[in-house]
Amino acid sequence: MDKDQKFNAIIIEDSATDEISLNKALKKYTNVTICGAYNNGHDGLEAIRRIRPSLVFLDMELPDMRGLDIIECLDAETLSNCRFIMHTSYADCMLESFRNNAFDFLLKPVQPDDLEKVMQRLQETASTQTPKEEGKIHKAEENLLMFLNSTDFQLVRLRDIGIFQYHSIHRLWEAVIANNQKPVRLKRNVNNKMLLTLGNQFVQVNQKYIININYLFQVTDNLCEFYPPFQDIDYVRVGSSFRRQLMERFLCL
């Protein structure tokens, strides 16, 4: 990590064991200064307002409140200058964290490789922030948590999804993702309405397909043609009832 980029951090964690473990793991990052550790939400919230840290490691479940409730209590100025890394034992909290202004997510016990990835991403994001972005509420890049089976999951950036397609036999939606050889299946309770709320870039073009319009090159004879890396997708047709909406969205790009 670039030593020129400094981060003042606090840890809000009710488990003394997890707090000590995280504090110890962060010592290798010489540009991160731990300014304090707090074991409940009230003290943690007060510390954020007083110290104004640029980085907070925040436990999802605290004795007096949820970690995400702390984020909700903060004003826009504080949020714009602080990144929150959620710290929890529950993998199913990941998507909720990203949807509520968390920058990233660490599972307990923290693994060195996972922490390294988070800190590297933190550094890259901080170093590329432009003056126009200052003063805005910071939001993590949108991600989608996909369960591969009952225990395994994959975190995917929304910008890497070319299309969602409905698998009629298995009766579920799948995501076609850049650099993935096979589509990734979503949970059975995911429907098209949920997928369309993920971002304005997703547009339904018929009953079985939702496309990322940022990759749409053109429509020829009602057949969608896509930019790389999705140029080989040649089977997505635009339904007559969806055509007007697609044209309106495409012209707005």
General description of the model:
Strands 2-1-3-4-5 form a five-stranded parallel sheet, sandwiched between helices. It has a five-stranded antiparallel sheet with strand order 10-9-8-12-11. Residues 128-140 have low confidence and may be disordered. It has 253 residues and is of the alpha/beta class. It contains eight helices and 14 strands. Strand 6 (143-147) and strand 7 form a beta hairpin. The chain is elongated.
What are its keywords?
alpha/beta, elongated, five-stranded antiparallel sheet, 253 residues, 8 helices, five-stranded parallel sheet
**Mean of the pLDDT scores?**
83
Number of helices: 8
Principal-axis shape: elongated
Distance between the termini: 36 Å
For the biggest β-sheet, the strand order reads: 2-1-3-4-5
What's the total number of strands?
A: 14
Q: Please outline the major beta sheet.
A: 5 strands, parallel
DSSP strand content: 25-35%
Gyration radius from CA atoms, angstroms: 21 Å
Low-confidence stretches: 128-140
